[in-house]
Each structure stands twice: as structure tokens, then as C-alpha cells.
């Protein structure tokens, strides 16, 4: 449910772990060239599909609740604090890359963000309706002056949403809508950096006026990039033996790391919007969801502290999917209900 820190000594299986140029040549973290991750898994593991988070023991079940099946999914963006134009454009390009084509009906090269989202679209509700493959930004609100301060809690985030609803006059969008709250680098959040990088839940009628799913993700730039922007920043305790920090594809450590967290939370909102649809475990207050099962996995052979085989662009940026406007992103894999394993469009097997 919440995207938590990724500690490299533990394979993530529960929420208590982490987190436009021409097509590049395909380069992996286990080539013989100069490279980033000297700590490679044994060949027997790196060549095994079973090492990519697959397990017959993972009991991801459907609990009869809705998924975001109505098309398109309308995201109402709330920018809390100050964000630059370039930061907003990068994040919006990622969100809009989820849909298979842009307004000019152009598709991003494969592997793409839209192909990554195809795993999410495998999840359905009791009527057989699958998660929508179309996502749009239906509205935006900028809260430049921190209307509820710079020290937020899981409860006060609902006040932030309520203020945005009143100020931007967002419609009551029960069928298609969700909120995405993004807080700037000067804003602290309850448990941020200590335990979470993002989380999702739903609004309370007593605070917002109605129930609608939302996700929150924070900018970790000045607070904890080594936790919430991994693998573009690396914790100090790993300095001698873990992987070196990878170069972010959009040259912004915090934003590139934040985008993977946003992807994680959007996937879980879509498949478990009211916390009563798809999750593992018996406690709905602490569910293990489709992103939680694959934290730290970005490519084939990943696991045990190894992110898997990914790509590098000509400038050295590390990525595994293409987006709109020539963008590139590094997104964690997601649990596939068909493969019963973590899956991504850059898989080599």
C-alpha cells in the first residue's frame, strides 16, 4: 500500500522493505563493460525466472471491491508547494505516457510506459471489467503557499485535498476520478523517509465531502534521496559493498526516483482503490499490493539487491521504458496475476 524503503539485504515481499535520442544500445548491469553494479547474483539465480519475485506462495487475492475500470482514469493533480515548470512537465509526461498513444496518436517506442501499465490492466473486478488502459490529467491545482503548513500527516493530507477541491472546483468524479497529491521538497510528511516514500488511501466524506481514492508522493531531494530515489542515490551503509548510484535518465535524481514511486502508487490505486480489491495478506489496513511484491526489481534477473538488466542511453542515463516526447524512465516491475511473478516490458525472457 505504501511504497517503503528498499533495503538491499532483503528481497521485497512485504510492505516493510523499500522502494529523445535515438534508441540506445541495450546494456545491462552484468556486462563486462565499465559498470555500476559489481555485486551480481550467482548465475544460477540471475538466469532463473523464479528469482524475479515469482512464488507459488504469494497469495494475492481479490476481495470483491472495485478497480479503476472506467475509461479514462481521470487524475486530479494537486501540486503542494513550489514546483518548477520543468518538474511539472516531466511528471505530467510520465502520467500521460500510461495511455498507449498521445493526442497525435503516436506510440512511444517499445519497451514503453504503456506496455508497463498493461500488467495493471490485467486486474479486473467481479463484473470482469479490467483496469482502464487510458489515463488523463483531468484537472490541476497549485497550492503554492502551503495552505496547511509544511509538516503534514496522513490525516491532514485530506485537508489539502479538501482545499484543492474547493479552490479548483474539481467535479465529484465517482466513476473515473482519483487525486494525486505531490508535495515539494520543503514539505515533511508523517513517516516520510523513515518508513514511506508514498502511500494511497481514499478520502473521508466528513473531510472532503465524498469518497474518492488518492495517492500521495513526496519530493525527497533535500530529505532522503538515498531512500526514496534509489537506485539513483545510494544509502551510506552500502558505500563499500552495494551497487553504485545509477545516472537518472532525466538528469534529476529526486524527480526520476519520485516517478518510480508515482508509478508504484498509481498501479496500486488502480488495482485496489478502496483497499478492498487486489492485495495479499489478511489485514486490509496493511495490505501487500502489486507494487509492494516487486520493489527493487527493474529488469530480468533482478532480486537480492540486484535491480536486473536495464538500458543506458548515450548520456549514461539508466532506464527501462520509453515515454512520450522522447522521455525515458526507470520503473519498478509489477506483480502479474497471469505469470504469478513480477513482470515488466523490458523482460528478456
TrEMBL record:
GO cellular component: apoplast
Residue ranges of coiled coil: none
Localisation: Secreted, Extracellular space, Apoplast
Major site of localization recorded for this protein: secreted
Domain of life: Eukaryota
Stored InterPro entries: EXORDIUM-like
The keyword Metal-binding belongs to this UniProt entry's keyword annotation: no
Key words of the record: Apoplast, Secreted, Signal
Similarity field: Belongs to the EXORDIUM family.
PANTHER family xrefs: PROTEIN EXORDIUM-LIKE 5
Name of protein: Protein EXORDIUM-like 5
The organism of origin for this protein: Cucurbita maxima (Pumpkin)
Species lineage: Eukaryota, Viridiplantae, Streptophyta, Embryophyta, Tracheophyta
Amino acid at each position: 500500500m505504501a511504497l517503503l524503503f528498499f533495503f538491499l539485504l532483503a528481497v521485497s515481499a512485504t510492505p516493510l522493505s523499500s522502494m529523445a535520442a535515438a534508441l540506445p544500445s541495450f546494456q545491462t548491469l552484468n556486462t563486462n563493460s565499465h559498470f555500476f553494479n559489481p555485486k551480481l547474483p550467482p548465475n544460477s539465480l540471475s538466469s532463473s525466472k523464479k528469482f524475479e519475485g515469482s512464488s507459488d506462495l504469494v497469495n494475492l487475492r481479490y476481495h470483491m471491491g472495485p478497480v479503476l475500470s472506467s475509461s479514462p482514469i481521470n487524475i486530479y493533480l494537486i501540486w503542494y508547494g513550489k514546483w518548477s515548470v520543468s518538474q511539472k512537465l516531466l511528471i505530467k509526461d510520465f502520467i500521460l505516457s500510461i495511455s498507449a498513444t498521445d493526442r497525435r496518436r503516436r506510440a512511444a517506442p517499445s519497451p514503453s510506459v504503456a506496455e508497463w501499465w498493461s500488467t495493471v490492466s490485467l486486474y479486473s473486478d467481479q463484473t470482469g471489467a479490467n483496469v482502464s488502459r487510458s489515463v488523463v490529467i483531468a484537472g490541476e491545482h497549485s497550492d503554492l503557499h502551503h495552505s496547511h503548513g509544511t509538516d503534514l500527516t496522513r490525516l491532514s493530507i485530506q485537508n489539502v485535498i479538501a482545499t484543492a477541491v474547493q479552490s479548483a472546483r474539481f467535479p465529484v468524479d465517482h466513476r473515473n476520478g482519483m487525486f494525486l497529491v505531490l508535495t515539494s521538497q520543503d514539505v515533511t510528511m508523517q513517516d516520510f523517509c523513515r518508513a514511506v516514500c508514498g502511500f494511497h488511501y481514499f478520502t473521508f466524506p466528513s473531510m472532503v465531502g465524498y469518497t474518492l481514492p488518492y495517492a500521495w508522493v513526496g519530493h525527497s531531494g533535500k530529505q532522503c534521496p538515498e531512500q526514496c530515489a534509489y537506485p539513483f542515490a545510494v544509502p551510506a551503509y552500502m558505500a563499500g559493498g552495494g551497487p553504485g548510484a545509477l545516472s537518472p535518465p532525466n538528469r534529476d535524481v529526486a524527480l526520476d526516483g519520485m516517478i518510480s514511486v508515482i508509478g508504484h502508487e498509481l498501479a496500486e490505486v488502480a488495482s485496489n482503490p478502496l483497499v478492498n480489491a487486489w492485495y495479499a495478506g489478511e489485514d486490509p489496513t496493511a495490505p501487500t499490493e502489486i507494487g509492494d511484491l516487486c520493489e527493487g526489481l527493474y529488469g530480468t534477473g533482478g532480486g537480492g539487491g540486484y535491480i536486473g538488466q536495464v538500458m543506458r542511453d548515450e548520456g549514461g542515463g539508466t532506464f527501462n521504458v520509453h515515454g512520450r516526447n522522447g522521455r525515458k524512465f526507470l520503473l519498478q516491475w509489477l506483480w502479474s496475476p497471469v505469470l504469478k511473478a513480477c513482470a515488466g516490458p523490458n523482460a528478456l525472457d
